[in-house]
Predict the 3D structure of the following.
Amino acid sequence: MSGNPTLNRLIRQTIYDLKHRFGAEVTVYKVVDSTTDYKTGVKSINTTSQSVRKAIVLPSTLSREIFQSVSYLSASKSFASLGGQGWDETSRGFIFDGNDLRDYVVELEDWIVYRGKRYDIQTVEALEWDTGYLIVAKEVKGQVSGGGPEVDVEQTLPVAQAVSETEDISLSLSDDLGIGDDAQDDLETP
């Protein structure tokens, strides 16, 4: 560590105070491996996650993004008069203490889950002397928030014997209604 030790201590103390005032639990996800079965089209993703008990969560900003290109404007005057095609984007800032993500390398491909919503990381800035990270992330609407299913279960059920329709009815009546063997024989005879 180089530089002014008083400034370093001030930055660490400020991050510590903000964590305890505005801290919330978030989880940072990273893709470890992904494979695609080209016959079925099923994609499986293996992720790892780092839970942070108190990350500083900054307020979200909602902005309307508008796409207008010259070709759209010249082709359709009504498109231009309506103001182009717009959509809403929500961005949020997160500040992480350097001690909370000590062995974790944050990359742009990672994502953050906060209150069940997924945020894709747009920018990562390391603070001075590895005291923390400032991350700006964009909310992804309609996306699974976590890293994917925890356990894949596959089970096959073998068929031991064929059951006729009359046996199936008599078994279901005796099981559901508690009918004895004598009453069941009366039901089966026409």
